[in-house]
Design a protein that fits this description.
The chain is an alpha+beta fold and 115 residues long. The chain contains 6 helices and 3 strands. Strand 1 and strand 2 form a beta hairpin.
């Protein structure tokens, strides 16, 4: 199985096993080059990329990818430039709220208006 074709299955397994890693991977876009799976993170998510590259997180993901795809894959994270669409979203006051709801679910997010 190709890691790109199996990416949704990989994410579902991560969601069950390690929700914190799943949250970090939510906006990452996978790209395969040989035996290297490059994860491209949006410009504003450099911290997420760094967290995924920590030895234990990277080893967990590489092991899971091998288990699901049968392929030895090395993970590499890269932070990309902000796209025009992301730039528009960042200007939107609701962007952070929308991302929080997407990650944690509507029932877990409480919106408190500033005065």
């Amino acid at each position: 199985l190709d890691p790109i074709g199996g990416w949704s299955e990989i994410l579902e397994r991560v969601k069950v096993d390690r929700i914190a890693i799943y949250t970090l991977l939510a906006d990452a876009k996978p790209k395969l080059a040989g035996n290297r799976l490059q994860l491209l993170f949006p410009h504003m998510q450099g911290f997420y990329a760094s967290a995924i590259e920590k030895e234990d997180n990277r080893a967990y993901l590489e092991g899971l990818i091998k288990k699901i795809t049968g392929r030895d894959i090395r993970l590499k994270c890269q932070v990309g430039e902000t796209s025009m669409m992301e730039a528009d979203s960042l200007e939107d006051d609701n962007y952070i709220v929308e991302k929080a709801i997407e990650i944690f679910g509507e029932e877990s997010v409480e919106i408190i208006e500033e005065k």
